[in-house]
Amino acid sequence: EPTVRTELMEQIPPIAIFLQESRPKFPTAFFEYLMPIVVRYLTDVNNQVRKAGQEALLILLEQDLVAQSDIENKVCPILLDLSAPDSDDEYKVEAVNIICKMASMLSRTTVEHMLLPRFCELCSDGKLFQVRKICAANFGDICNAVGQEATERLLIPKFFELCSDSVWGMRKACAECFMAVSYTTSPEVRRSKLSPLFISLISDTCRWVRQAAFQSLGPFISTFANPSSAGLYIREDGTLSIRPPAQDVNSNSCQPSNNITVVSSSANAA
């Protein structure tokens, strides 16, 4: 029964945490018994079971309970199969969504070598706009996961494609994550490539795209500032924040020195 399998998936993370805490007693139980079930349920015929499996996988990755070998040899291959060009549409949409969500939890090498080529392919998927929409909405997170060199070499050309997509929702998603993409690039790429691209979004024929671009204008401009002098920096959760200068903190010791969150980036992508 699908409900039984769904319930089982919901119990996997707490069982895995228990096994991790009791590892001397159960050194291989998780890898031998539980992980194969999680991987198998990613391709279950029932969508609720698959959804529960995906959620369980993300929790396990977040808790750092999945071995690197299992990620590379079991999880990534099944996601690559599910997101292949000839894959079922529903499976493909789910696969690209889980790839985007797990990218920030994996090592840069794993993301760049195993998942980035497929992500670039999916950005140009001409069959399903839902796939391109997921890629656009999570573009900043993927850039952050792979770093500057891979972003400029492989992702920026794809970002240009998405920013000129015929579906306005795609262009709007790109405008919303523009700061996160810009922050990952060099000042020269920011100035010579991203600035003209941003102007095209702020002049878009669709008012929803223009509105999203205007809302991202300040955050985009902030990426040109020198963090050491302006105090602007990007938190791990993707928010643009202000760090008070050291001299101000010292001279006003009675004032709170908490960082001030200015605006969210791609986390607010609609």
Automatic annotation (TrEMBL):
It holds the Pfam family HEAT. The keyword Nucleus does not apply. One of its GO terms (cellular component) is cytoplasm. One of its GO terms (molecular function) is protein phosphatase regulator activity. Gene3D superfamilies: Leucine-rich Repeat Variant (1.25.10.10). Keywords: Repeat. HEAT repeats lie at residues 115-154. InterPro entries: ARM-like (IPR011989), ARM-type_fold (IPR016024), HEAT (IPR000357), HEAT_type_2 (IPR021133), PP2A_Regulatory_Subunit_A (IPR051023). This is PP4R1 phosphatase. It comes from Hypocryptadius cinnamomeus. The lineage of its organism: Eukaryota, Metazoa, Chordata, Craniata, Vertebrata.
